[in-house]
Amino acid sequence: MSNADPENIEAFKERFDAIHANVSQAIKGKAGEIRLALTCMLSEGHLLIDDVPGTGKTTLAKAIASSIEGKWHRIQFTPDLLPTDVTGSMVFNAKTGDFVFHPGGVFANVVLADEINRASPKTQSALLEVMEERQVTIDSVQRDVPRPFVVIATQNPVEFDGTYHLPEAQIDRFMMRMAMGYPNHEAEVQVIHDRLRGDRPEDLDPVISQAEFEWMIETAANVYVAESLQEYAVTVANATRLMDELRLGVSPRGTLSWVRAAQAWAAGKGRNFVSADDLKELAPFVLGHRMLLAPEAELQGVSSTDLVRRTMEVVPIPADRS
Fold first, then answer.
1. pLDDT-derived band of residue 3, with 50, 70 and 90 as boundaries?
2. pLDDT tens per residue, range 252-285
3. Predicted pLDDT at 221
4. Which end of the chain is more exposed for a tag (fewer CB within 10 A), N or C?
5. CB contact at 8 A, 291 and 304
6. According to the 3-state scheme, what is the secondary structure of the chain?
7. Confidence of residue 96 (pLDDT cuts 50, 70, 90)
8. Where in the chain is the domain with CATH 1.10.8.80?
9. Which of 13-17, 32-36, 52-56, 215-219 shows the lowest mean pLDDT across its residues?
10. What is the CATH number of domain 223-317?
11. Is residue 125 pLDDT above 50, yes or no?
């Protein structure tokens, strides 16, 4: 059934739980959000976080990078940010008389694209190639970014002055979209306690190596997905494309992302096969942002989350659920 045998999945889960516990030292009261972020990264996807400032988005990126012995960069997106600030550029070396490549912010394992919608569309588009191909092309030369590689981008859903909506082509390249939300009372008190004590997310000790994390990525990609569930995922995606409330339904890239995320999600729970419940749990985070509402639906207050829920209720689950 699967190249991900039980022994490998058990080792996967042990490492997954170790990373989760380590990141939880920096992000209090957000076990579900951490699990989603790790699932996204283990599926080699990118994460878009819509939330107000100060809810832990930067801390999440730092903590994940520190836990896997990885390198992280933060790119603060502003209206004057240039595409070369993101990808890198060729700089003339007066001593040698040659042009030397200076890498941009994307050359890291975890890249935090902070307030991505504040940069111009031209600069936003500089991320398109690297998010899809994991490489940048400068002066016709292709340069690979490190592996693992994930972009965690943030948007402020409250303040829209001076912002540029992300184009659909770029939104579709994010595997997941979620919100961090405010912590509960006990978690917020613990956050204050830890910071007053001097604890910082970048001070976390790594719990696995980058090589081990790459092994986890390969293991997750081998988790078994029954043909009936593959057909179920495509049927759900097709149903969104026929909705009157939508101008744009889920793309084939979205369907593939959904299935790949379900593989890592299942492995994180200690299984070497995907269930229908895995797909249902992930649907709002993988499918919702790929559904573009029609103007009439927006006026009526319909949300993409409502439509995802309705679609999951209408499309029958396969009899063989594993």
1. low
2. 999 999 999 999 999 999 999 999 999 999 999 9
3. 95
4. N
5. yes
6. CCCCCHHHHHHHHHHHHHHHHHHHCCCCCCHHHHHHHHHHHHCCCCEEEECCCCCCHHHHHHHHHHHCCCCEEEEECCCCCCHHHHHEEEEEECCCCEEEEEECCCCCCEEEEECHHHCCHHHHHHHHHHHHHCEEEECCEEEECCCCCEEEEEECCCCCCCCCCCCHHHHCCCCEEECCCCCCHHHHHHHHHHHHCCCCHHHCCCCCCHHHHHHHHHHHHCCECCHHHHHHHHHHHHHHHCCCCEEECCCHHHHHHHHHHHHHHHHHCCCCECCHHHHHHHHHHHCHHHCEECHHHHHCCCCHHHHHHHHHHHCCCCCCCC
7. confident
8. 223-317
9. 52-56
10. 1.10.8.80
11. yes
CATH topology of domain 1-222: Rossmann fold (3.40.50)
Residue extent(s) of CATH 3.40.50.300 domains in the chain: 1-222
Q: Which residue has the tokens 């920096």?
A: 26
pLDDT at site 70: 84
Of all residues in the chain, what percent carry a pLDDT higher than 90? 52
